[in-house]
Design goal:
Structural class: mainly alpha
CATH class of the largest domain: Mainly Alpha
Distance between the termini: 22 Å
Low-confidence stretches: none
Order of helices and strands: HHHHHHHHHHHHHHHHHHH
CATH superfamily of the largest domain: MFS general substrate transporter like domains
Radius of gyration: 20 Å
Helix content: over 70%
Number of helices: 19
Number of strands: 0
């Protein structure tokens, strides 16, 4: 890899790092936000999901924008927007303001991940792409997983507000590296952006999520809850219908005719729903039920970080040679066992005996899974469509997390007490197992592998 290639990889990693860092920190900050701004469990769910609604809906538009205007332009706009909204969240006077700022931050975050991955796939050839994606996976996943520790330190030593300002420095460094990047920008002539479809998608997801979150509080028979779910589902159905007929869709449904694309996204749905459920449940349970300070609750995931840093690049190289199917099957199966081991959590709680073994298996399984999954999905589409393929896959992962966090109160049976945590562990294990089955049944290795 030459100097410019290393710079491309650094920009892609740092741009995604910003989005993943903030997304992971917010879970650790939830108890402190609840204590200062109120809102209860529903408020905590909305702080997470306001970001995921706009991210999940508009990440599709970001893929088209990346293909239309170029990866570097979209990355620059996303980085500046993320910086401004981070400052707004840190200054939030009420829970409603924080939720609104998180929704705006989701718009900026939607511009970062698909463009950064597309930057990798357009710069690196097939021989080195898996290795580059493996390095991207290791670094960004490590950021996502070490963020709770960093956020916890800020929360315990200062305030949860400072935790949202952590990304100011990496954003500045990324903008500087991006300005000196020598790689020519890639644009797809004739690409268009369907704003009506984007609005249908965002409103549809928002309505369904509103009903799922507020149903636990207002009651599932409440007219507002039923109306939100029905209208949201109808709007999302209208979005899919428009995509089927649109000459330039934001989510090209014909991509789902490609076997590894649809199978990879099906596996993504189960795996990332499980990861979102586990990430939310563990840090909230450790703080609100087990009595851990934010720093120790964040440090609970450090073994996963270490394992991913050590193993992701090697897994990326092996998947290039062997093919992704074995890795995408074994990884979620290992994580299912790890999630099941969380059922050993009891009263009194012992992290070393009751949680660490499961966390280690989650780290091993995640390392085995993520890089081959990304390579399988992006490698299945034709050149020039990596931006939208990356956007669709990221949208699928975010929407999966969005929906499972929306029903976490239903899964846990209320708050995250010990019994509620056990119920989320069972649901997490089932979702991981479903991801393993989907991968084995759907993914096929390329003839080259």
């Amino acid at each position: 890899m030459d100097a410019n290639g290393r710079r491309v990889l650094a920009v892609a990693i740092l741009a995604s790092f910003v989005a993943f860092l903030d997304g992971a920190i917010v879970n650790v900050a939830l108890p402190a936000i609840r204590a200062e701004l109120g809102g209860g469990l529903a408020g905590q769910q909305w702080v997470v999901n306001a970001y995921l609604v706009t991210l999940g809906a508009l990440i599709l538009v970001a893929g088209s924008l990346s293909d239309l205007h170029g990866r570097k332009v979209i990355l620059r706009v996303g980085l500046i927007g993320f910086l401004l909204t981070s400052v707004a969240i840190a200054a939030a006077p009420t829970i409603e303001f924080a939720i609104a700022a998180r929704a705006l931050q989701g718009i900026a975050g939607a511009l970062l991940v698909p463009s950064s991955l597309a930057l990798i796939t357009t710069h690196f050839g097939e021989a080195t792409r898996g290795r580059a994606i493996g390095a991207w996976t290791a670094a960004t996943s490590a950021a996502m997983l070490v963020a709770p520790l960093i956020g916890g330190l800020f929360i315990d030593l200062a305030s949860w507000r400072w935790a949202f300002l952590i990304n100011v420095l990496p954003i500045g460094v990324t903008l500087w590296l991006l300005a000196g990047l020598q790689t020519p920008d890639v644009r797809r002539p004739g690409a268009r952006v369907d704003l009506i479809a984007s609005a249908l998608c965002a409103l549809g997801l928002g309505g369904v999520v509103f009903g799922l979150i507020e149903g636990s509080r207002l009651g599932w028979g409440d007219p507002l809850v039923l109306g939100a779910v029905i209208v949201g589902a109808a709007l999302f159905a209208a979005f899919l219908l428009r995509e089927r007929r649109s000459p330039e869709p934001v989510m090209p449904l014909e991509l789902f005719r490609i076997r590894n694309f649809w199978a990879g996204n099906l596996a993504t749905t189960f795996i990332y729903a499980a990861l979102a459920l586990n990430g939310f449940a563990v840090v909230v349970f450790l703080q609100e039920t087990a009595g851990f300070p934010a720093t120790l609750a964040g440090a609970a995931s450090l073994p996963i970080t270490v394992i991913m840093i050590l193993g992701s690049s090697a897994i990326g190289r092996w998947a290039d040679r062997i093919g992704p199917r074995l890795f995408m099957t074994a990884g979620p199966a290992i994580m299912a066992v790890g999630a099941a081991l969380l059922l050993t959590a009891g009263d009194p709680f012992d992290y070393w005996l009751q949680m660490l073994p499961g966390v280690v298996l989650l780290g091993v399984g995640l390392t085995v899974t993520v890089s081959p999954l990304t390579s399988a999905v992006l490698g299945s589409v034709e050149d020039g469509r990596e931006g939208i393929a990356s956007a669709v896959n990221n949208a699928v992962s975010r929407v999966a997390g969005l929906l499972v966090v929306a029903v976490i109160a239903l899964i846990a049976g209320g708050d995250l007490t010990l019994q509620g945590f056990h119920r989320t562990a069972i649901a997490t294990a089932v979702l991981f197992a479903a991801g393993a089955i989907a991968s084995w049944a759907g993914i096929r290795n390329s003839p080259r592998a």
